Automatic annotation (TrEMBL):
InterPro entries hit by this protein: CDI_dom, CDI_dom_sf
Protein name as annotated: Cyclin-dependent kinase inhibitor domain-containing protein
Keywords: Protein kinase inhibitor
A biological-process GO annotation: regulation of cell cycle
GO molecular function: cyclin-dependent protein serine/threonine kinase inhibitor activity
Domain of life: Eukaryota
All residue ranges annotated as the Cyclin-dependent kinase inhibitor domain in the record: 63-101
Region (Disordered): 118-161
CC per GO annotation: nucleus
Bias (Low complexity) ranges: 145-161
Family: Belongs to the CDI family.
Amino acid sequence: MAMSGVSVEVLRATFARAERVRLMKHHEEKCAARRSPIDPIALARVRKNLFAEDQFVFSSTNSLFVEQELRRIENVEKARWNFDFANEKPVDDKKGTYKWELYNKPQMKHLVAPKPRRIGQAKVTDYMPKRKGLKRASDGKPALSQEQEVQAESVQIMQVD
């Protein structure tokens, strides 16, 4: 079947090729947007050295830095709150922002509810009434103990034989 001199198969192939080209361009644009502006070789070097084995060579320098930072933070907070957090005592400093005082909690026993005599449920019967006998759901007869059920089954088996 020809349509103004061009077959349907040729048209389909042309459109399929155009669609593939469009998808390839779209994929290239997405990949280009995801690419980092950093040089990939430099990035690989950084990745290699990030968890290098000789990072522990400078561990004394790192621990010294951490200790200095902790002391600096402690001094800043001590000056800010006028409280020695290491010894858990207020600082007697006249130029501090806060003055710490001991607070005694007032005694208000009459406002506090008495403690309950017992906490929790001691027995099932505390919340549920006692029943004389449990009944089986299947036939309405009283429930049997496990031993009684075994005996009843053996009697039924003997009767069948």
